[in-house]
Amino acid sequence: xxxxxxxxxxxxxxxxxxxxxxxxxxxxxxxxxxxxxxxxxxxxxxxxxxxxxxxxxxxxxxxxxxxxxxxxxxxxxxxxxxxxxxx
Length: 87
Fold this sequence. Notes:
Blueprint: H1 13-25, H2 41-49, H3 69-86
């Protein structure tokens, strides 16, 4: 794989087929695993997410890692409350 960002990659048929498979396989996850991720994996996911395009490279997203179970539950409760009002 060429990491030179100045050269456009070639998306051959095999790549396009696998990408279509990935898009077709994706799901709306409603139940999540409870075991922690291996060290460094969450940070790696955030690095990858930051590669997503944004207008003018504004990157309007913010990521917060909540490790404390009480705060995580408070965030979940807040989300469920707000989500319930929108239904």
